[in-house]
Amino acid sequence: MSLMLKLLATIALLSSFLIADEQNKKIEDFLKQLYSSNPNIKSLKIKITDRVDVKEHPGWSAYIVDFDAILAKENRQASQKMVWFSDGDVISKEIFSVNDKKDLKDFVSLTFKSEYYKKENLIYGNENAKHKVAIFSDPLCPFCKKFVPEALEYMKKYPNKFAVYYYHLPLEALHPASVELSQAAIALELQGRKDVVLDLYKINIDPKERVNEVILGTFNKAMNSKITVADLMSAEVTKHFQSDLEIADKNMVNGTPTMFFDGVLDKTKNKYKEVK
User: Fold this and answer.
1) Spatial distance between the Cα atoms of 126 and 130, rounded to a whole number of angstroms
2) What is the distance between the alpha carbons of residues 2 and 159, in angstroms, rounded to a whole number?
């Protein structure tokens, strides 16, 4: 490529970034004005963190928006991640496709960034394996209990094909006991135990259980371990647990099981089976 062509390509790329930045600011300003009219909002910060083109509907893009506000009546902070759609002229929070009768949110998927593949989350395979698989799961989720062990047992047999990264995402509102179970699993892994996640799905406990002594007692009996409440509150466990929740939030993962295959959301959860 000649120097002139390279220069023109660079100018075109910079122009596209400038246009995108201007569009982001335009939408941020609109949303700030929209929500600032609410008398219960004392202070407000709105930031677009990502933009995804809706390939199935050319011209439309999904904007991932971080919403942080101080609510006056409750005197508390409220944080939320939202999706807004725009074609450059029109903006809307909800759009439905008439032909396929789907919400445009069904077509939006964030790319799982390389920075989220953390060493502490790698439970099977080599980090340089051909495929990277990220799994978000709750050990007491009924579908997870059927799906996750089978998927892990399969992929752990091929360490050069699959690098499997596991992220704890207990759904506390549905299964409060899963919070302590997940933290206990992290603590046991930090002690050097292998296959902790696989064994985690063999534990039978009432998902609604909230008594720490009962949850830890059941965990230790099943795992033949001696994890304590103090272990759950350690800095290392807290850091790992919070990191998993933050990564789930950044990728708008709020249900389990959720799987990303080579950085792309796998709604079928069967991509790993298609690898020869």
Assistant:
1) 9
2) 44
Q: Is residue 32 a contact partner of residue 41, using CB atoms and an 8 Å limit?
A: no
3-state SS of 191-255 is CCCCCHHHHHCCCCCCCCCCCHHHHHHHHHHHHCCCCCHHHHCCHHHHHHHHHHHHHHHHCCCCC
Task: Copy the structure tokens of residue 218.
Answer: 């059941």
How far, in Å, CA of 274 to CA of 134, rounded?
16
The rounded distance, in Å, linking the Cα atoms of 228 and 187 is 9
> Contact 265/109 with Cβ under 8 angstroms?
yes
Query: d(Cα 17, Cα 165) in Å, to the nearest integer?
Result: 32
Six token digits for residue 103: 């919400």
Beta carbons of 110 and 265 less than 8 angstroms apart: yes
Does the CA dihedral 203-207-210-214 come out positive or negative? negative
What mean pLDDT is reported for the chain?
89
Percent of the chain with pLDDT over 70: 93
223-261 burial, b for 16+ CB within 10 Å, e for fewer? Answer: bebebeeebbeeeebeebbebbbebbebbbbeebbbbbb
Rounded Cα–Cα distance for residues 12 and 76 (Å): 45
Distance CA 73, CA 68 (A): 16
- The conformation of residue 39, written as its DSSP 8-state character, comes to T
Burial class, 125, CB count within 10 angstroms (exposed 0-12 / middle 13-18 / buried 19+): buried
Tokens 């005197």, residue?
75
Q: Considering only CA atoms, which of 155, 92, 104 is closest in space to residue 129?
A: 155
The model's pTM? 0.81
Contacts of 73 (CB under 8 A, 6+ apart): 40
Per-residue model confidence (pLDDT) at position 225: 96
